[in-house]
């Protein structure tokens, strides 16, 4: 299994909109973090869907090593 790139060792805080769908970048290669821009092509990674149930700030994992994708679970502290 390939290792993902690590765009940053901290989460991205994003104000999401209720009802909208987001695609979190799992490979770490996207140029528009924390979301997928198609750069995972040719890797073993695929983006992870996030459906916003309410409008709020969400902390998306930036280190790509979370055990609870697409959200930060604190794993970045151990990298
Ligand atoms: Fe990383 Fe698509 S660019 S999952
Ligand atoms: Fe990846 Fe926190 S940024 S676990």
Tell me what portion of residues adopts beta-strand conformation: 15-25%
Q: Low-confidence parts, pLDDT < 50 over ≥5 residues?
A: none
Distance between the termini: 18 Å
Domains, number: 1
Give the overall form.
globular
Number of helices: 0
Average pLDDT, all residues: 97
DSSP helix fraction = under 10%
Are any ligands bound, and if so which?
Answer: FE2/S2 (inorganic) cluster
H/E series: EEEE
Task: Please state the CA-atom Rg, rounded to the nearest Å.
Answer: 12 Å
Number of E strands = 4
Major sheet, described briefly?
2 strands, antiparallel
Q: Give the structural class.
A: mainly beta
Strand order of the largest sheet: 1-4
Can you put this structure into words, describing what you see?
It is a single chain. The chain is globular and about 35 Å long. The strands form 2 sheets. Strands 1-4 form a two-stranded antiparallel sheet. Strands 2-3 form a two-stranded antiparallel sheet. The chain is an all-beta fold and 79 residues long. The chain contains no helices and 4 strands. It has one domain (1-79). The structure holds FE2/S2 (inorganic) cluster (2 copies). One FE2/S2 (inorganic) cluster binds at residues 10-11, 61-63, 65-66, 72-76. One FE2/S2 (inorganic) cluster binds at residues 25-27, 29-30, 36-40, 45, 47.
List keywords for this structure.
mainly beta; 4 strands; 79 residues; two-stranded antiparallel sheet; two-stranded antiparallel ribbon; binds FE2/S2 (inorganic) cluster
Brief sketch in words of this structure:
With 79 residues, the chain is mainly β. The chain has strands spanning 12-16, 21-24, 48-51, 56-60.
